[in-house]
Specification:
Length: 369
């Protein structure tokens, strides 16, 4: 405010000097007076805006806020700690738990136990619930685009605004039990079974999302093992082209066929305690063939708006970010940054063709680097 007063006094001084100027024509004096007045008003407006902006930012920027999310998936529970500017926060939940279980009564018991525990902790607990596959897909899409800055950006006045002409990015999430694809279709979708409308920072987005149950990494492996172990008759080993050469693994039938995803492969001589012995052959081409049989591409009957298993999906558009299991796989192959599908396939083929002894050395070096 002091700067504003000083500038105002200087402008007034200039104004007085102009009026007192001798020998000037009347029209010239009037012109100078108008110019000085315009300068005075302009400077005053700029100073006022800056003053209000500084004090407004001080008033609405109390500092960062934090949120804790416990994501209980099929294979592990991950703890996320988020930090964001307080002006972005809209009093949403601070602590939430997502969990998927086969038995509804058991799930409710787990959720009740979680709520009882966290209500005794120093958190602003907002409840625990089981999210649907669609919610999981949309949450992943929101996370990707939030981190990429596709929803908000700061302008020159340090105010959060919607980026002009920003395109959203699709999301691919590979979990343990399921995998999700989420993106905004080129044409507006009217199918409520596959589209969710979300409102973020005053803007609406119609997001296509689908969760493919039993297509997560862990459940896909069980389905593959179950298909390989069909019709076993006491043979020494079951060849697995997707395991490294000479890798051996003993698994119970309960582990292989006990899942809802692999139960349809259960043999007539099913014994949950019986062991099945697998031996890797390290054959990437055969592995690709066996994995492809887990997908039912014929169910689409040649339809263009269909992915597999008869699931409706509009034409994909734009860029995608793949995370979770997709990232873990690429990271294990030492693929970082940007790489092509050909580079990924080449690295995968080279890795999967190796003998188990060489893979052990590679994994040891990778874990210590």
């Amino acid at each position: 405010m002091t700067i504003f007063i000083v500038i105002l006094l200087l402008c007034l001084l200039i104004f007085i000097c102009v009026l007192a100027g001798a020998g000037m024509a009347l029209k010239r004096k009037i012109s100078l007076v108008i110019s000085v007045l315009f300068l005075l008003i302009s400077v005053s407006v700029i100073i006022a805006i800056a003053y209000v902006q500084i004090h407004q930012e001080q008033a609405i920027s109390p500092g960062p806020k934090y949120g804790i999310v416990l994501d209980a998936g099929s294979s592990r529970t991950t703890v996320y700690v988020y930090q964001w500017p307080a002006e972005k926060e809209n009093n949403t939940g601070v602590v939430s738990q997502t969990n998927k279980l086969k038995n509804e009564s058991a799930a409710q018991g787990v959720l009740a136990s979680i709520e009882n525990y966290f209500q005794t902790q120093p958190f602003d607990f907002r409840g625990a619930h089981i999210i649907t596959g669609q919610e999981e897909g949309v949450y992943g899409w929101i996370t990707v685009n939030y981190l990429l800055g596709n929803f908000l950006e700061k302008n020159i006045w340090s105010t959060w605004v919607h980026p002009d002409g920003a395109e959203t990015t699709g999301a691919l999430d590979l979990g343990g039990a399921s995998t999700q694809i989420s993106f905004i279709p080129e044409k507006s979708e009217q199918n409520p079974n596959n589209t969710l409308e979300v409102t973020l920072y005053g803007y609406k987005y119609n997001v296509y999302t689908h969760s493919f149950q039993c297509y997560g990494r862990d459940e896909s492996e069980k389905r593959l093992l179950a298909s390989l172990a069909q019709g076993i008759r006491g043979q020494a080993f079951v060849d697995n082209p997707c395991y490294p050469r000479n890798y051996k693994l003993n698994l119970t039938m309960n582990y292989i066929f006990g899942s809802l995803c692999s139960a349809k492969f259960r043999p007539a001589n099913y014994n949950p305690d019986q062991f099945v012995r697998f031996k890797g052959t390290g054959d990437p081409d055969q592995c690709l063939h066996r994995v492809s049989t887990l997908f039912n591409f014929t169910a689409c009957h040649g339809e263009q708006d269909c992915s597999f298993d008869g699931v409706y999906q509009p034409n994909v558009k734009g860029k995608f970010s793949a995370f979770s299991g997709f990232y873990y796989t690429a990271n294990a192959l030492n693929l970082t940054g940007h790489f092509s599908l050909e580079e990924f396939n080449s690295s995968m083929s080279s890795f999967c063709s190796q003998d188990w002894n060489k893979v052990c050395i590679f994994l040891l070096d990778h874990s210590t680097s």
